[in-house]
Design goal:
- This protein has nine helices and eight strands.
- By secondary structure, the protein is of the alpha/beta class.
- The protein has a four-stranded parallel beta sheet, sandwiched between helices. A four-stranded parallel beta sheet has the order 6-5-7-8, sandwiched between helices.
- Strand 5, helix 5 and strand 6 form a beta-alpha-beta unit.
- Helix 2 runs parallel beside helix 3 and helix 4 packs across helix 9.
- The longest helix has 18 residues.
Length: 236
Amino acid sequence: MRDTQRICYFVPGALSAHPGGLQEARRRQAYLQAHAGSATAVEIRDNPAGPASIESPAEEQQAAAGLLEVLPGAAAGFDAVIIGCFGDPGLRAARDLVNVPVIGPAQASMHLAAQMGDRIGLLTVVDSVIPVLHELVKEYGLSGSLAAVRAVDVPVLGLRERRDEVIGRMVTEGRKCLDDGVDTLVLGCMTMGFLDAAETLQAELRTPVVNPVLAALHTAELFLGLLRDKSLTRTG
């Protein structure tokens, strides 16, 4: 029996194909590992044939198709999988394909936020993502809890190199969300989560901010703990 539980963080896009992508993958893996429990090992996998970023329904469909093709092989030997995109592309089908827990960051983050407050707000990258997020909120049965969705107007591939500017925009749009009645914010993009800005936003806005990277990671660890304790059984 292994003492270490292995979690695959699967990016449905072509992270490794970006300039500096391998370095970024290592940085993200280190971030995940630093926040994981001592018995958890996290490894990043991606789909080199996937889209460079996922900012539209078309790119989401492309990502989902690639994920379903590549994931079964990539997930071999892992105890759980996190889909590394806030849009949760291919989530339901992925759960049919692999016999381990598959965590959708949007689903995990939104339901966590709904337990922390009464009115959820989502901060995302660009306006083209907003309709996708509204559909996800509806699919997850949380339309009655959603108070606002706002974008910082910076594409995914520009977030890291413009980090200080992006955090400033997140604070500005976050304040607008609070004016809309939001009491709990969710970062609606995994790259935003890897900026490690939630603590700064919480201090500035004085409201809870859910980082989807950590929400997904700890949800995966929770599932594995319940499976280990036989409080939960596998299906499929």
